[in-house]
Write a sequence for this structure.
């Protein structure tokens, strides 16, 4: 499957694992949306960003980060 990954990690000095995972998810989301928007062969580029935004609004902890190319 191309829509998930498995990660084994270790955190030194009891670092905040939740914060690190949050940063990984944020970075990945930004890169995915950027790839969709900037790929001329992406057939779903018209509806995917709107779908992501609509679904993201249902969670108050989400925020919209700046996306390059827009």
């Amino acid at each position: 499957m191309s829509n998930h990954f498995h990660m084994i990690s270790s955190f030194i000095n009891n670092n905040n694992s939740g914060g690190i995972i949050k940063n990984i998810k944020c970075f990945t989301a930004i890169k995915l949306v950027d790839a969709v928007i900037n790929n001329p062969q992406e057939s779903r580029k018209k509806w995917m960003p709107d779908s992501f935004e609509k679904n993201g609004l249902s969670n108050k902890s989400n925020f919209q980060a700046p996306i390059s190319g827009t």
